[in-house]
Amino acid sequence: MLQKDAKIPEQPTGPREPLLRVEGLVKHFPIRKGLFQRQAGAVKAVDGIDFEVYPGETLGVVGESGCGKSTMGRLITRLIEPTGGKVEFEGRDITHLSMGQMRPMRRDVQMIFQDPYSSLNPRHTIGTIVSAPFRLQKVEPEGGLKNHVQELLSLVGLSPEHYNRYPHEFSGGQRQRIGIARALALRPKLVVADEPVSALDVSIQAQVVNLLDDLQSELGLTYVIIAHDLSVIRHVSDRIAVMYLGKVVELADRKSLYSAPMHPYTKALMSAVPVPDPRRRGLKSERILLKGDVPSPISPPSGCRFHTRCWKATDICKTQEPPLLTLGTGHQVACHHPENAPDQAPGQQVLAEAPDSPQDGPKE
To answer: A Pfam family this protein belongs to (predicted)?
Structure first.
């Protein structure tokens, strides 16, 4: 039976042990050409990222389309095989476990997919879809499988009477709730949500986000939520990682990140978020317009990957890749010249080809 009164366990006063630890994670998709399908290159979707997720918290991951967010989510759930690096769950290295070895781990690590239409089998009833984890794991819930599935449906805001219906009979928001019920069936410890509300109407997004928040409080879940909507991430996250071209460029707690972003790319992202304040109507706000397109992940720029679009880029940015370092403010930033803080690297002449400073650029 579901323990709806379960709470997030209190953290010990000493150093916390992470539930998930990622070190140097890499995923390169080979590009093959010719008659013999020889490798001519690789798409560097994820190219060396490090982060930790602690029990009971929500880590949000944001970035432009193509930065590797969704690939990262599939790597940490072991839906795809990493090229390099390490993924540890509860202190156990799961990086290269076989399908059979991963099967018991599936009870603790689940994923909510972006598209609720394609993630549900149209030939199966809702009862069959939500009960699939129990059959695969050979688990017989107390009180019977059907009663437990109906209880799960009630937990996510659906009616137990929906048990025998098919996915095409539901709206997009209801289908996403079905996907959430399936992910929570075996009471996982970690849930990776890949853009869980991006395919839904705006009026439904808040309902699903609030549902995820309530379920975390009731069931003691740990989330990694991937999204491109900065407003959604701000609402649900405890800490936020910003990705750019396969790298994590900044990682900080929610309040610090939104009040004083350190990486120029994060600052540009924040400037694009509309502020719903009627008192600011008619006022011009500083909007940082990045020049140029995102470089290709097949051949990323040398040094700092953001230097081709950064207004602070110097010679060192072009030649030396900045490590992800922890500053005195608590931010982890991969930048030679972070915002709102003393430079990590000595001041140098700004590159001639670097975009103009946003203070001199256009305003909206």
So the answer is: ABC_tran
Is the CATH number of domain 56-85+95-244 3.20.20.70?
no
The ranges of the chain with pLDDT < 50 are 1-14, 360-364
Length in residues, the chain:
364
**Tokens, residue 104:** 């018991």
Q: What is the pLDDT of residue 80?
A: 94
Sign of CA pseudo-dihedral 88, 93, 94, 96: positive
Q: Kindly list the domain boundaries of the chain, sorted by start residue.
A: 56-85+95-244
Q: Which residue has the tokens 């079905």?
A: 178
What does pTM read for this prediction?
0.86
Looking at residue 200, its amino acid is L
Spatial neighbors of 314 by CB under 8 A, at least 6 apart, are 336, 337, 345, 347, 348, 349, 350, 351
Closest-CA residue to 244 (of 305, 324, 195)? 305
Got the DSSP string for 48-104? Answer: EEEEEE-TT-EEEEE--TTSSHHHHHHHHTTSS--SEEEEEETTEE-TT--HHHHTG
Taking only the tens place, the pLDDT of each residue in 176-211 is: 999 999 999 999 999 999 999 887 888 888 889 999
The helix or strand, by DSSP H or E, that contains position 146, with its residue range, turns out to be helix 145-155
Name the 3-class secondary structure at 128: helix
Neighbours of 53 (CB within 10 A): 23
User: Hey, what are 215's tokens?
Assistant: 């379920």
Alpha-carbon distances, residue 185 vs 34, 109, 110, 131, 156 (angstroms): 46, 11, 10, 7, 11
Label residue 335 exposed, middle or buried (CB < 10 Å: 0-12, 13-18, 19+). Answer: buried
Max distance between CA atoms of the chain, in angstroms, equals 71
Residue range 58-117, pLDDT digits in tens: 999 999 888 999 999 999 999 999 999 999 999 999 999 998 899 989 999 999 998 888
Do residues 297 and 246 touch, judged by C-beta distance below 8 A? yes
